[in-house]
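Marked as duplicate of an earlier ticket. Keeping the data here for the record.
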Amino acid sequence: MSGVFGGSEPGALLDHHTGVAHQHVVDALNDMVVGLQVYAENLSQFSKNLTEQDLQAAADLTPSRKAELAAAGSHLNSDNFHGHGGGNH
């Protein structure tokens, strides 16, 4: 019987080891693909959860808290965080 590396005993042993090494590479690549698929699923679920939590947080805000946040946000657009005119106070 003759293998890829000849019919000698060392050639057959090399053929065997090459086959084992190739199988390890195939197994590692398959494991990597599965791992990447799980990672993608986790990212997708994280994104979905984040969106749901943002929507729930917005829905949970009371009208008075929404007004407070809007008022605070308006100060971010001014030169003075205290809402007074310009200058150093």
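See parent ticket for discussion. The mean pLDDT is 85.
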